[in-house]
Amino acid sequence: MTDMPPKLAEIVDEFAGAPREVVLEMLLEFADAVPPLPADLAGHDGMEQVPECQTAFFLRAIVQPDDRVVTHFDCPPEAPTTRAFAGILAEGLAGATTAEVLAVPDDLYARMGLSQTISPLRVRGGTAILARLKRQIAEQAPASRTE
């Protein structure tokens, strides 16, 4: 898949080709891999809440001067599926440019085959996470700054 960062494309392919029972294990691994928030974001200062998620989910995207995107996510461990979305995005988008992140297809979770494994409500929440992340990045992208 050439329409997204290579690492994210690799993750999508792994999920899409995995049997259903393995997909659940993979989701749990990504849920455990969410990096901790830096101290300056403790208490969700400067983070956006994603109300479409059933659980409290916060995110922040920062476009660096070199056009690389840094993402921060916070979601309680008691919500492993939603937390897995954060882990997938954190790993898959690490080091990506604004253009690469903005090119991530909106139907990312369907491409991963997750609609056969998790509830539509959870997929909707994951889709909202991606949409809000992309919006934050678009607002900070160099083209937006000059307009």
From TrEMBL:
Superkingdom of this protein's organism: Bacteria
InterPro entries tied to this protein: Fe-S_metab-assoc_dom
Occurrences of domain Fe-S metabolism associated (ranges): 19-136
One Pfam family, short name: SufE
Annotated family: Belongs to the SufE family.
Name used for this protein in its record: Cysteine desufuration protein SufE
Origin species: Actinoplanes utahensis
